[in-house]
Write a structure and sequence with these properties.
With 326 residues, the protein is α+β, with helices and mostly antiparallel strands. The chain folds into three domains: 86 residues, Uridine Diphospho-n-acetylenolpyruvylglucosamine Reductase, domain 2, CATH 3.30.43.10; 125 residues, Uridine Diphospho-n-acetylenolpyruvylglucosamine Reductase, domain 3 (2-Layer Sandwich); 65 residues, UDP-N-acetylenolpyruvoylglucosamine reductase, C-terminal domain (Uridine Diphospho-n-acetylenolpyruvylglucosamine Reductase, domain 1), CATH 3.90.78. It contains eight helices and 18 strands. The longest helix has 19 residues. Bound molecules: flavin-adenine dinucleotide. Flavin-adenine dinucleotide binds next to strand 3, helix 4, strand 9, helix 5 and strand 13.
């Protein structure tokens, strides 16, 4: 028999050192059923860039109860916690993440269709969402075909293309709040904007998304999806690891144009390089480190600012700690 969990009792005070609070959080997570834990887990294999420092705790819940337990423990012990989907828009600095990275992935990929509503769990890929919509003869997600990542990550980021953004077709989102409670957020409360939603700043985890779509001919839906993917293959350097667009589009301009103007296209630091095919993509040429990518981002921002006066803002989510200066 396992010892009973101390999760809701509390031992370490919120002002105890982080290491003590983290140890207690790990004990709580070990007692949560349906939770897989890895300690000091390098994040490179969990991100599409293929770089990244280690997560002190990489937690893989298999049930919503396990997600709730993790959020409750992290909240009570004031331990940093952040969700990781498929890691396609994430850069973990070389010094690693000092708390819990909670992975919402394959375990959460159920799909349900009811009329023109598609409900899909947050760990499903956008590709799976697009496929389910096409199979059901539901239109609205065609623009997202070829965008990698999870449904939860796409909702939090309000992922989009020139053809639309995911928030436009979201009716509601089911979340686990930071205190471990479950809730439903309706579209109007989610504050969707360009590559943002209130979910990015709020400490909550998306567990499923309800899309409101429109009936259409499956063949027409598939044709539009195919064209979206083809267009992407033509313009993006998809044979190397990347995180998609590194910078957001500045008002009335394009980050790629400014990066080219500043002579950053093709610039290399270590194993990371601004792609020659798409100026706003950093690619991993095989042996890049998170530090190479961070330095490349900082250099690009500085050069673009010097040349154009525009300060670019990262679209990629950069988390974790820098290495101490030598
Ligand atoms: C080749 C390539 C092309 C891309 N093209 C596009 C594009 O055209 N348009 C576009 O918008 N993006 C694009 N992206 C970026 C990325 O695919 C999307 O932002 C994607 O939706 C992120 O999902 P993810 O699961 O990978 O999120 P992650 O990278 O794992 O996380 C990104 C952010 O979302 C949060 N998050 C993830 N899952 C959850 C969850 N369940 N609950 C709460 N928060 C969560 C994370 O905490 C983090 O802040 C591209 C990336 C690549 C590699």
């Amino acid at each position: 028999m396992r010892e009973s969990c101390t999760c809701d009792e509390g031992r370490a005070a919120a002002d105890a050192p982080l290491a003590d609070r983290l140890t207690e959080a790990i004990q709580c997570l070990r007692h949560a059923s349906g939770m897989e834990l890895r300690l000091d887990e390098p994040m490179a294999p969990h991100t599409s860039l293929g770089v990244g420092g280690a997560a002190a705790v990489f937690a893989i819940p298999h049930t919503i109860e396990a997600v709730c337990a993790a959020m409750r423990a992290a909240h009570r012990l004031a331990v940093p916690i952040l969700c990781v989907g498929r890691g396609t828009n994430l850069l973990v600095r070389e010094g690693g993440f000092p708390g819990i990275l909670l992975h919402i992935g394959e375990a959460f990929s159920a799909v349900e269709v009811e009329g023109s509503r598609l409900t899909i769990q947050a760990g499903a890929t956008l590709a799976e969402a697009c496929e389910a919509a096409a199979n059901a003869g539901l239109s609205g997600l065609e623009f997202a075909a070829g965008v990698p990542g999870s449904v939860g990550g796409a909702a939090a980021m309000n992922a989009g293309t020139g053809g639309g953004q995911i928030g436009d077709v979201i009716e509601a989102i089911d979340v686990v709040h930071e205190d471990g409670s479950l809730g439903r957020c309706l579209h109007d409360s989610l504050d969707f904007g360009y590559r943002r939603s209130c979910l990015r700043d709020a400490k909550c985890i998306v567990v499923s998304v309800v899309f409101a779509l429109s009936p259409a001919e499956p063949a027409a839906i598939r044709k539009a999806m195919f064209e979206a993917v083809e267009n992407r293959c033509r313009k993006q350097p998809l044979s190397l690891g990347s995180c998609g667009s590194v910078f957001k589009r500045p008002p009335n301009d394009y980050a790629g144009r400014l990066l080219e103007l500043a002579g950053v296209k093709g610039l290399r630091i270590g194993g990371a390089r601004f792609s020659g095919k798409h100026a706003n993509f950093i690619v991993n040429e095989g042996n890049a480190t998170a530090q190479d990518v961070v330095e490349l981002i900082e250099t690009a921002k500085r050069r673009v600012y010097e040349v154009t006066g525009v300060m670019l803002e990262e679209e990629v989510c950069v988390i974790g700690e820098s290495l101490p200066l030598q």
